[in-house]
UniProtKB/TrEMBL annotation, chains A, B:
SMART domains: CBS (SM00116). InterPro entries: CBS_dom (IPR000644), CBS_dom_sf (IPR046342), Diverse_CBS-Domain (IPR051257), HTH_11 (IPR013196), UCP026546_HTH-CBS (IPR016842), WH-like_DNA-bd_sf (IPR036388), WH_DNA-bd_sf (IPR036390). Residues 81-140, 147-214 form the CBS domain. Gene3D superfamilies: CBS-domain (3.10.580.10), Winged helix-like DNA-binding domain superfamily/Winged helix DNA-binding domain (1.10.10.10). Signal peptide: none annotated. It comes from the Bacteria. This is Transcriptional regulator. Pfam families: CBS, HTH_11. It comes from Effusibacillus lacus. Keywords: CBS domain.
Amino acid sequence: MAIELSARQQQILEIVRLEGPITGEQIAEKLNLTRATLRPDLAILTMAGFLEARPRVGYFYAGKKTSEIFGEQLRKMLVKDHKAVPVVISENATVYDAIVAMFVEDVGNLSVVKDHGILAGVISRKDLLKVAIGKQETQSVPVSLVMTRMPNVITVTGEDNVYNAARKLVENAVDSLPVVKVLDAERKQYEVIGRFTKTTVTKIFVELGSNREI
Amino acid sequence: MAIELSARQQQILEIVRLEGPITGEQIAEKLNLTRATLRPDLAILTMAGFLEARPRVGYFYAGKKTSEIFGEQLRKMLVKDHKAVPVVISENATVYDAIVAMFVEDVGNLSVVKDHGILAGVISRKDLLKVAIGKQETQSVPVSLVMTRMPNVITVTGEDNVYNAARKLVENAVDSLPVVKVLDAERKQYEVIGRFTKTTVTKIFVELGSNREI
């Protein structure tokens, strides 16, 4: 919702931002206007959430910036509603199997799982490329030897919000996070239920920017 | 700016959205209220930009949704202000050189250039992995043999907005776009001046969501 403020309303905001809390009388004085003249402007600024009024204290600045709306919005969007389907490989598979799986599924990262889909680790294109240019045969190296292993894997749950998930991607410099259901927090037994990747974020970004309802 | 609408204001919006243009009298009738009672609500909705009023026509819906603010914001942010530094390799380099460059620079994509930094193509981790598991020696295959070649490379310029750039990433299913300066549009002579990647988008996303001014 873009509000078009009048020049006077902007002046009022500026005064309150710099000098608040400040009474209506004092604002009127600064603008050489009567309190009655200002009343509609103050009512609108208050109802629109720019200002807050407290009895016997006065007005203070409470306006939200566009960036704050973004922040609120992104914190309401949950990983479970935006995650991609999981792409997993058994910890008994070879590096060669993992490379084939990545091409077949067209993904850049795989979750490596034990029995019952329990997360054992993750493996990326970068990890595989490292093996592929090495001396070893990709068909003889098990993925479990080159993967990032639990408990060092950064994960998210479906209940996490997309802002925090995106922050984990940036802060840990990874392209993908397994979305997990926690079966046993103490023993780090996580079931893999999806992926949250930079592609996921880019799709949300485009969706949000497309002027459609979300 | 988040505006908190009263229940009655939301009812009014809904009526105007469905039946506008509609006069104040007609809205009042629908709500079993007097025109005078509604006046402050209509004034606020109009000043806040939700409704527009035209003399002798009535009120019609003009409100912007949060998603529209997003869209506007993202269209104001330009690629040149957010792009990453270019990482390039000569078209005379080998696949092995490209793999080494990717590890050294820790990037997933390289721009392949001719003399004077003119874009010849792009190469991804996926392209390199394909060669690495093949029969050929990575040291004997030139990158120019396996890269995506101009004019098939999707590019953006610094003047493009980040929304359109992100959309190109999604629609073309690529992880990275070379940011270029167009030297000769007809002959597709582009100088590489940066990168715009899913990592770039994820960083903007986190920045926008961080409740800070942007």
